Structures are given as structure tokens and as C-alpha cells.
Amino acid sequence: MTLAEPGKDELAEIATFGYERARDELVNVVKMLEQGGLDLDDSLALWERGEALANRCEEHLAGARKRVEDALSHGESEND
């Protein structure tokens, strides 16, 4: 099994993923890495993809956190 090193196109595609898709693909990457049996280059390429997917999930979570904080502060200012 040979995996291509994630290129700019693939990483750009990950930037378009919704949270659920990025999370699901990250889960698959982790499973593949845990199973082992890949050579070093393939493992590194898969790990790099996992990092990009994890970063995408973090972006979504940070955005959601900000929306909640903004909604809470907006609600507090209306009660003043």
C-alpha cells in the first residue's frame, strides 16, 4: 500500500470540510495508524493528513465557541 504525500490540493480540500466530515476522516486516519503495517513514508503522509484534519476540526470548534460566547454576551447586554 502506497499513500501519496498530501499535496497542496488535498490540504486545500480539507479546508472546505465541515466538522463532521473532518472528524470522521480523522477517526479513519487514527484507525489506520493504529493498525500499523505501513512503511515510514506512508505513515508520515497519513499523520500529516491527520494533522490537517485535526486543525480543521479545531477551526470549527473555535468558531462554535466564539458564536456561543457572542450570544451569551449579547444576552447579558440586553439584560443590563
TrEMBL record:
Top-level EC class: hydrolase
Catalytically driven reaction(s): Exonucleolytic cleavage in either 5'- to 3'- or 3'- to 5'-direction to yield nucleoside 5'-phosphates
Secretion signal, residue range per the UniProt entry: none
One MF annotation (Gene Ontology) recorded for this entry: exodeoxyribonuclease VII activity
GO biological process: DNA catabolic process
Main location: cytoplasm
Domain of life: Bacteria
Keywords: Cytoplasm, Exonuclease, Hydrolase, Nuclease
Entry keyword Nuclease: yes
A Pfam family this chain is assigned to: Exonuc_VII_S
Subcellular location: Cytoplasm
GO cellular component, one term: cytosol
NCBIfam families: PRK00977.1-3 (NF002139), xseB (TIGR01280)
Family: Belongs to the XseB family.
Primary role: Bidirectionally degrades single-stranded DNA into large acid-insoluble oligonucleotides, which are then degraded further into small acid-soluble oligonucleotides.
Complex and partners: Heterooligomer composed of large and small subunits.
Name the UniProt record assigns to this protein: Exodeoxyribonuclease 7 small subunit
Encoding gene per record: xseB
